[in-house]
Amino acid sequence: MKANKFLKFGLALMLTLNLASVEAQQYGETMKDKRILISGAGIAGFTLAYWLKQRGFSPTIIEKYPHVRGGGYKVDVRGTALEVAKRMGIYEDLLEANVNLAGSKFVSSDAKVFEFEGDILGHSSIGEIEINRWDLAQILSKKVGEIEIIYGDSITKIDEKMVYFEKMEPREFDIVVGADGQYSNVRRLAFGEDSKFLRRYGIQFCVFPIPNIFELERCEIVYFDNGKLVTAYAVGDHSYACLAYKSEDQAPSPNKALFEKQFQGLDWEVPRLISLMKESNDCYFNSIAQVRMPSWSKGRVVLIGDAAHSVQAMGTSLCMVDGYVLAREIAESNGDYALAFERYEKTMRKVVETSQDLAETNQQAFTDSSMRMKFQLYLMKILPKRIIQYFTEKGKKQMKEVANALTLEPIPKMTQKPSDRQD
C-alpha cells in the first residue's frame, strides 16, 4: 500500500517537474524569440543590437540612409561608456581611431592667438577618447556582426501589432526602439511632434571637411567674433571645420547661402572657410537642442540615445550606455517589456538630467545675448595662462564626474570572455 502511494507520488512529482521544464523551455523560447526592431544604424542602435545579440536575441535594424557612414566631426566617449566599450572588446579599436587633441588655439577678434594644452572647448580629460562620429558607428557595426539590417527605408506607422514602412511590406514586431537621433521619426510617430519635446537654443551650425589650411596636428583652433563661432581641427589626414551662430529660427537651416550671409564681414580666415563650405558636397547642418521628455516609452515603443534625451558633450556616451542598459533590462525582465522599459529609465534618468543641466549652462557661452565668451577671451588677454588652465581643468572635472556617475554591475567571472577582461 505504502509502495503504491510512493509510486504515485513519484510519478506525480516527475510529471510536475516535466511540465515545469516544458513551460520554462517554452517561456525561454518566447523570450529569445521577441521580435525587436531598432530604428537607426548609429551609435545607440548598433550598441543596443550588439548587447541584445549577446543575450540571445536577433534584432533587426532599419536605417533610412543607404549605408553605414564614415568620418564626421569628433565626439567624446567618456566615463561609463568607456567601460561599455571595454566589455564589447572595442576599446583598442577606439584608441587606434582616436582624434584626441594635444592642444587648442583661441583666436580673438583682433587676430591674437592664445595657445593651451589639451582640448579646452570639449572639456576632454586624460583617459577619455575623442573619435569621429561615424568612424565609431563603423567600429560598432563590425562588432555587431551578422544581423538583419535594412538600409534605405524608414517606418511610416506603428500600431498595436504591425510596423509599416515606406518601401517594405508591413511586419510584426514585439518591441520597437527609436535610436534615430534628435529628430527621431519613431518619437514623432509614437509620442507626437518635435515641438512637444525639443528645447531649442537657436544655435545653427554647419560641419564640413576642409584641407588642413591651418597646418594643425592634433589641435583645434577657435575663433569668436560678433556672436559667431568658427572652429577647425586636424588629426593626420582628417580635418573638419564648423561654423555656428545664434538665430531666431529654431529649426535647422540647411542653407549655405544663409551661413554665407551670417558670416559676411568677419576677418581672420573666415572668408576662406566660407568658400570651402560653398565648394563642399559633404556639409552637415543642424541646430543645438535638447530632448526633454516625461517618459521614454509608450506601449511597446521605447527611445534611447538622442531620440530620448539629446544632450551636447555627453550625447555619444549616453547612447552607448543606454544601449547596454536597455539590452540588460529586456533580457532580465522575463518577457515583460513594460518592466524592462521602467527599469531602464529608472537607471538612466538621473545621469541624463544632470548631463542636460550641465550642457545647458555651457550653451550660454555661444549665444549673442551672453557676454560670457567675450569675457573669457578678454581674460585670456590679461590673465596668466596657468589661471586660465585652472578654470579649464575645473570644467573638465565637472564633465568627468557626470560621465562617471553611473556604475555598471560587475561582470560574472564564469561568463567573462578574454576580450572582456580588464588588466
Structure keywords:
seven-stranded mixed beta sheet, 18 strands, six-stranded mixed beta sheet, 423 residues, globular, alpha/beta, single chain, disordered C terminus, 13 helices
Layout of helices and strands:
Blueprint: H1 2-32, E1 36-39, H2 43-54, E2 60-63, E3 74-77, H3 79-88, H4 91-96, E4 103-107, E5 113-117, E6 129-132, H5 133-144, E7 148-151, E8 155-158, E9 162-165, E10 171-172, E11 175-178, H6 185-191, E12 198-209, E13 219-225, E14 228-235, E15 238-246, H7 256-262, H8 270-279, E16 284-291, E17 297-298, E18 301-303, H9 306-309, H10 315-332, H11 337-363, H12 372-382, H13 385-403
Helix pairs in contact: 2-5, 2-10, 3-10, 10-11, 11-13
Number of H/I helices: 13
Helix fraction?
40-55%
Q: Which class best fits the helix and strand makeup?
A: alpha/beta
Tell me the fraction of residues in β-strands, as a range: 15-25%
Average of pLDDT: 81
Shape: globular
Distance between the termini: 65 Å
Stretches where pLDDT falls below 50 for ≥5 residues? 5-29, 367-371, 414-423
Largest sheet: 7 strands, mixed
Structure description:
The chain has 423 residues and is of the alpha/beta class. It is 41% helix and 22% strand. It is built from 13 helices and 18 strands. It has helices at 2-32, 43-54, 79-88, 91-96, 133-144, 185-191, 256-262, 270-279, 306-309, 315-332, 337-363, 372-382, 385-403; strands spanning 36-39, 60-63, 74-77, 103-107, 113-117, 129-132, 148-151, 155-158, 162-165, 171-172, 175-178, 198-209, 219-225, 228-235, 238-246, 284-291, 297-298, 301-303. It has a 7-stranded mixed beta sheet with strand order 5-4-13-14-15-12-16, sandwiched between helices. The chain has a 6-stranded mixed beta sheet with strand order 7-2-1-11-18-17, sandwiched between helices. Strands 8-9-10 form a 3-stranded antiparallel beta sheet, with helices on one face. A hairpin with a 2-residue loop joins strand 14 and strand 15. It is globular, with a radius of gyration of 25 Å. It starts with a helix and ends in a 20-residue tail after the last helix. Residues 5-29, 367-371 and 414-423 have low confidence and may be disordered.
